[in-house]
């Protein structure tokens, strides 16, 4: 199933929040992504309907296995691309912004070549 870039961004943000805080709340997603709470509500509804997240009774959000798989893939791409750009001499905040722009569109062969470069390069 093809998932939209915006849904990938939401799932990635949720994973980052889960790792950072131990929980995921809609208000934190809005702050992380710089979007409104109503936008988050619409996205959360769609992600829940598609089986990528569940809502806890306390209002916290949990990633399902399929949601976690997508989030982890996107977040891995983001971290690897950011590291690659930093190693090229790009300032870290710019590297992270640029990684976010291409993490969804980069081809598998190109990403794997970047992974090999990052994994094999001595600092």
Quick gist of this model?
The chain has 123 residues and is mainly alpha-helical.
Structure notes:
With 123 residues, the chain is mainly alpha-helical. Helix content is 69%, strand content 5%. It contains 6 helices and 2 strands, in the order αααββααα. It has a two-stranded antiparallel ribbon with strand order 1-2. Helix 2 crosses helix 3 (37-49).
What is the average of the pLDDT values?
Answer: 92
Report the radius of gyration as a whole number of Å: 15 Å
Cα separation of the termini: 39 Å
Q: Strand percentage, roughly?
A: under 5%
Number of strands: 2
Succession of helices and strands: HHHEEHHH
Structural class, from secondary structure content?
A: mainly alpha
Question: Residue share in helices?
Answer: 55-70%
Shape designation: elongated
The largest sheet, given as strand count, sense and whether it forms a barrel, is: 2 strands, antiparallel
> What strand line-up does the widest sheet have?
1-2
**Count of DSSP H/I helices:** 6
- Poorly predicted regions are none
Fold topology:
Blueprint: H1 5-21, H2 26-33, H3 37-49, E1 53-55, E2 61-63, H4 65-87, H5 92-102, H6 108-120
Antiparallel strand pairs: 1-2
Helix pairs in contact: 1-2, 1-4, 2-3, 4-5, 4-6
């Amino acid at each position: 199933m093809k998932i939209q870039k915006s849904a990938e961004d939401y799932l990635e943000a949720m994973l980052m929040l889960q790792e950072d805080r131990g929980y995921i709340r809609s208000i934190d997603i809005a702050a992380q992504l710089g979007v409104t709470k109503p936008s988050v509500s619409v996205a959360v509804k769609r992600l829940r309907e598609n089986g990528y997240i569940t809502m806890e009774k306390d209002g916290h959000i949990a990633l399902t296995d399929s949601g976690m798989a997508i989030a982890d893939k996107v977040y891995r791409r983001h971290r690897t691309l950011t590291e690659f750009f930093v190693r090229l001499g790009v300032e870290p905040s710019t590297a992270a912004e640029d990684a976010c722009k291409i993490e969804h569109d980069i081809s598998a062969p190109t990403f794997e070549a970047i992974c090999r470069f990052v994994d094999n390069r001595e600092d």
